[in-house]
Design a protein that fits this description.
pyruvate-formate lyase- activating enzyme, Rossmann fold, alpha/beta, about 475 residues, globular, about 40% helix, 7-stranded mixed β-sheet, 19 helices
Length: about 475
Amino acid sequence: MAEEIEEMSAQSGATQRVLLIKSCSNDPSWKQVNHPVGLMSIAAYLRALYQLDVRIEDLRISGDDRFGLEAVVRQYAPDIVGISALTFESNAIVWIAESVKRVNPNVPVILGGPHATAYPEKAIEIPGVDYVVVGEGEVVAGQLIDCLRAGRDVSEVKGIVYKREGRTISTGRGEYISDLDRLPMPAYDLISIDEYGKYYRMSRTGSGNFMSIFSSRGCPYRCIYCHNIFGKVFRPRSAEAIFSEIKHLYDKYNIKDFEILDDIFNLDRDRLIEFCDRIIASGMRVTFAFPNGMRGDILDKQQLSKLRQAGTIYIAFAIETGSPRLQKLIKKNIKLDKIKQNIAIAHSLKIHPHGFFMIGFPGETSQEMEMTIDFMVTSKLHTIALFVVMPFEGTELGKMTVEMGKVPVNDFSMSYHTKEFVNLTAVPDEEVNRIRRRALIKFYMNPLRLFVLARDFPSKRELGKLALLFLRRLRWRSL
């Protein structure tokens, strides 16, 4: 990396300003916010390799509306603007791009992130968006910006979509970054760390300063409801690199709580053990939460014990369904007995086990929904999230939905927790909703579970918020 920086620095011209904007949720009541790790990584890469002046504007934190954002653009006067959005943050892209162009119609606007990668052809049709980055943003965005500042033809950049003379042009998908250790550490100095501590974390395990971290990209599993954002090849950062980043945050910013957002942190067993051993040997008093889920059926007691010794207080287990038939249909293929055993081990170690479940898969019967509920209530899970299936366009599930003569989800303001959903089952909507509500009540109204939850939940101050969340879920509202 040092050689690349030296070479790019020699080639770069005058410093240019790049404004990176993080979009806000489609649901104004949504209070869960994690750090914009993707933009922080891109910012660090652009500064290191291209000597650019970069600013991050997170609309979830600033609360800026059109006028506030226009003031930011006017004051900073960026030469290039980038926007990042998840699908549930995609509605704001329209007014963000419009606001930027209202201040400076000539500034190039680049859209990236998971939503742009999942729906590039739709994304490029958004007024004010000039380029769409498909896939990982660091290298592609850097090459695109370098082309724009040098006046070269952008068609040489692989991994973008753009318009030329009314035609949509795609250059394919950029190559995945094979060695993530070569990326510079995310630009932590470009965000106000204290501000993020005022919002709900994904794990809801506490309040105050914490940091979100990605330690790997890619997942080899082929669940039919997932978009292929980071590819199917698991690309981990080394245990040494993750440890060094955490030590840096601990020493420089006094961060002691971390949320690791990987899709599958535990795929490499040796890496997990080495990482835990490094943390244990360091003597740092830290906590870890894994709110995005681990592959729960490939854990074992040794790994869970190591994770607990290293400070792990929360693991989400993505079970999805208690039906063996549906496990095969959705290509999750979880070993249900094994994951239930590991949930019990986590519980015994006082690691908070959270469960993800879905009902409403194609052809799912009411009896199979009951199998999922039975798994929930007979497990040692402390908390659960029960979603209704959302068949998004661009997924294998979305294609199955079309084949069933139904329309995949294209209204991105819909929530996993609303009454309205695309019903892929033979069970009437009203019955599905009744089963969903009864499942939540049956799970949480267990006196022993409530006792354990009150006794072992990592943050006693957050229990009241969990109760509020439960009530809102019963009313078909998210939070």
